[in-house]
Write a structure and sequence with these properties.
This protein is 36% helix and 17% strand. By secondary structure, the protein is an alpha/beta fold. The protein folds into 3 domains: 213 residues, Transferase(Phosphotransferase) domain 1 (Transferase(Phosphotransferase), domain 1), CATH 1.10.510.10; 201 residues, Response regulator (Rossmann fold), CATH 3.40.50.2300; 143 residues, 3-Layer(aba) Sandwich (Rossmann fold). Helix 22 links the parallel strand 21 and strand 22. Strands 19-18-20-21-22-27-28 form a 7-stranded mixed sheet, with helices on both faces. Strands 1-2-3-4-6-5 form a 6-stranded antiparallel sheet. The chain has a 5-stranded parallel sheet with strand order 12-11-13-15-17, sandwiched between helices.
């Protein structure tokens, strides 16, 4: 529990908020109290999602359906208002700890207890699926342990079977390590995905670790899709069922009802494994475990057939949390016009009670693109530069924050040229509903000047969004400067950032960051040039990026390959040692884990000097002029993963390339085409936003929910993390004849 923030609401429907229970990409969950004293967990959807009519309509349907999900192992819905300015959903408050907390603190549970846990969670999923829903985020953190059994919580990303997702099209939704292969690859979903996730949860409960490795992230996604689950330590009688549930093919998995019945069976036919002390409750109980206050934490002996028995110490923990919740100070009295919800059963809620139509909120929701254009025109006189009532389309100004005269001038100029072409193309369209203009501010590559540039653009009321900054690293202080005025910032080229991911709701990064490029290298060494002995060269001189690349390879090394390691120390020594190890270890591939082009060139020269002829790969930052110049012939054949494409080689960018040559007398430079697409994304967001008030806020909220078909690739985002989909945004290059040649999208090479 955390105190309320200054901007947190004090009233949500008939509830008064007390403390924060948690927060995520969709909204914030509060512990709240009704006028009659009932405690509830109230999830409030963030305004950026509420302003999307499509999201609101889907949330409305799912709230109605969630009321019908009943059963002893599902937390009941107490009420909701899907038409409020910020929609909310209230459920019963369960003070018990999560399964994740119990296992992390006290270790794995006995097999028979896990069977009881699984049978009840499977029964909860039966209720969910019978209501036509898919949970989509079954994980240890969403399982609360009460005295009489578990409770499945958080239907925040649940959806109707076969319905459109709540997030951007094809977005990966769920928790890596506990989602099904079809979720990890953004494929079509159905009830089998929940069965797969349930099996992951039960493996975690009985072994203390997830079946696809620790760490989550891209490594867990890769292993979920391409590798088999690790069932080491799972008792034989349980392993067979869980193995079936973890089938890659959804059609091969048993239904939730079959899983429920199998786990509730009174006899485990395979019997306990002799090497597993937890399979015998008496042995398990003889092993004391330290609790949070030093007491022994030993689950009571489970009865045969998976009967649930609350672990010893759980009752005290629940009592302590309940007392803490009840001891919170009483909120101020509710207005007399608000009726208490005490006594309203979830199943008895009427549609009128559940979905109170707020006229003000309804007026703020603009449905459909035509209404969106009208709303934009009406606001154009105030913000966009058009004359109100003149019938002329408004003009929206896009700001370019770029280094145009410092060390990063090349990238800044590429942005400027790409954006100028995009603005001209947009304004030439006969069906345009608004015009675009460009205001450019040069920060000269200086940090202090960059802050002043941000202030100037943010203070200009005509600027509705900014492309940039164009520096290699996106700084947190710049993000904060723009955030004060809710001005959308679309970052095209920065390879890393010091800003906390997912916290800046006005920030949109259209490229995978450098640390996200590793899957392309793993794919290349798996599919294109299969390697059996891979030498991982982690460069200590670039500890951040080098460590991230190395960690990704350790988590998701190509199946069947042996990963060898040769750390490269700082300084001038060590290149020859690494090169000799590559040859002596009979490695057929070498991975440079770092981003220093000069040091990558020295490694390339050392490998060539030792006669190493295997595959050599690295992430994009190592592919710089220094690499090509200093490595010379030793650079030949190296393959790099990058986040930019070569528009000259893209059929979809043929017209752009021709226009660039005609206007500027040269082919497009790196990031010019991506900057062109950034303008298209902003224009699409401006044309579909339904936010009330200033257009700035509407664009900032809409960007990550917009899918734009660009000339380089289709831009779409994961709504839960606000990160760009990387599947179609990582490209491979190979050095040939002294220059880097674009090979294409990594999954197609």
């Amino acid at each position: 529990m955390r105190p309320l923030a200054p901007d947190d609401p004090r009233t949500v429907g008939p509830y008064r908020t007390l403390v924060r229970l948690g927060a995520g990409g969709m909204g914030v969950v509060y512990l709240a109290r009704s006028a009659g004293g009932t405690l509830a967990a109230v999830k409030v959807i963030r305004a950026e999602h509420a302003d999307d009519p499509g999201f609101r309509a889907r949330f409305r349907r799912e709230a109605e359906t969630a009321v019908r999900v009943t059963g002893p192992w599902v937390v009941p819905v107490l009420g909701a208002d899907t038409e409020a300015l910020e929609p909310w959903l209230a459920t019963a408050f369960v003070p018990g700890p999560s399964l994740a907390e119990v296992v992390e603190t006290h270790g794995a549970l006995p097999t028979t207890t896990v069977r009881g846990l699984g049978s009840r969670l499977a029964a909860a999923l039966v209720a969910v699926h019978d209501a036509g829903l898919i949970h989509r985020d079954v994980k240890p953190g969403n399982v609360l342990l009460a005295l009489d059994g578990p409770r499945l919580i958080d239907f925040g990303i649940a959806r109707h079977e076969g319905a459109t997702a709540l997030t951007a099209t094809g977005a990966v939704v769920g928790t890596p390590g506990y989602l099904a292969p079809e979720q990890a690859s953004a494929g079509p979903l159905g009830p089998p995905c929940d069965v797969f996730s349930l099996a992951c949860v039960l493996v975690y409960a009985v072994t203390g670790r997830p079946p696809f490795g620790e760490g989550g992230g891209v490594g867990a996604l890769f292993r979920t899709i391409h590798e088999e689950a690790d069932l080491t330590g799972v008792p034989p009688g349980l392993a067979s069922l869980l193995s079936d549930c973890l089938a890659k093919d959804p059609a091969a998995r048993p239904t939730a009802s079959r899983v429920r019945d199998a786990l509730a069976a009174t006899e485990d036919e395979s019997g306990p494994g002799p090497a597993d002390p937890r399979s015998d409750p008496r042995t398990y109980l003889a092993q004391p475990r330290a609790g949070s206050r030093g007491e022994e934490f030993s689950p009571a002996a489970p009865e045969p057939g998976g009967t649930w028995r609350a672990p010893a110490g759980l009752a005290a923990l629940i009592a302590e949390r309940s007392a803490a919740a009840l001891a919170l100070p009483d909120p101020e009295p509710l207005p007399t016009s608000v009726a208490p919800v005490d006594g309203e059963a979830a199943s008895g809620l009427s549609r009128r009670t559940l979905l109170t139509a707020g006229t003000t909120a309804a007026a703020l929701v603009v449905g459909g693109s035509t209404a969106g254009w009208i709303a934009l025109r009406e606001r154009g006189g105030e913000e966009g530069g058009g004359r109100a009532g003149s019938g002329e389309p408004p003009t929206y100004t896009i700001g370019l924050h770029a280094d145009l005269s410092g060390s990063g001038r090349a990238v800044g100029v590429a942005h400027q040229r790409g954006i100028e072409l995009a603005v001209a193309d947009h304004n030439s369209r006969e069906d345009r509903a608004f015009r675009l203009a460009l205001r450019t501010v040069d920060d000269t590559g200086d940090p202090a000047s960059a802050l002043r540039a941000a202030d100037r653009l943010a203070a200009d009321p005509l600027v509705v969004a900014v492309v940039g900054p164009t520096a290699v690293v996106l700084r947190e202080d710049l993000v904060a400067r723009y955030g004060r005025t809710r001005l959308a910032v679309v970052v095209v080229a920065a390879g890393s950032t010091t800003a906390e991911p997912g916290t800046a709701l006005h920030l949109c990064v259209t490229r995978p960051l450098d640390r996200m490029l590793t899957p392309a290298l793993i794919s290349y060494l798996t599919r294109t040039r299969p390697a059996r002995r891979i030498l991982l060269v982690e460069d200590a001189a670039d500890a951040v990026l080098g460590g991230e690349i190395a960690a990704a390879f350790r988590e998701a090394a190509p199946a069947g390959a042996t990963l060898l390691e040769a750390p490269m120390a700082r300084g001038n020594a060590g290149f020859g040692v690494v090169a000799r190890k590559a040859v002596s270890s009979r490695a057929d591939a070498a991975v440079y884990a770092g981003g220093d082009a000069s040091r990558a060139a020295r490694l390339a020269t050392a490998l060539a000097g030792e006669g190493f002829t295997g595959v050599r790969v690295a992430a994009g930052p190592a592919l710089g002029p220094a690499f090509l110049d200093r490595a010379d012939e030793a650079a030949e054949g190296w393959v790099f993963a990058e986040a930019y494409a070569d528009p000259s080689a893209l059929p979809s960018a043929r017209s752009f390339t021709a226009a660039h040559r005609k206007r500027f007398g040269a082919p497009p430079a790196t990031w010019a085409a991506e900057a062109y697409d950034a303008v298209g994304l902003i224009a699409d967001a401006a044309g579909t936003t339904s936010a009330s008030g200033e257009i700035r806020r509407g664009i900032a909220q809409r960007l990550v929910r917009t899918e734009h078909r660009g000339i380089v690739r289709t831009l779409s985002f994961h709504a839960s993390t606000r990160q760009v989909r990387q599947e179609n945004g990582i490209f491979l290059y190979r050095v040939e004849n002294g220059r880097s040649r674009w090979l294409g999208l990594y999954s197609s090479v």
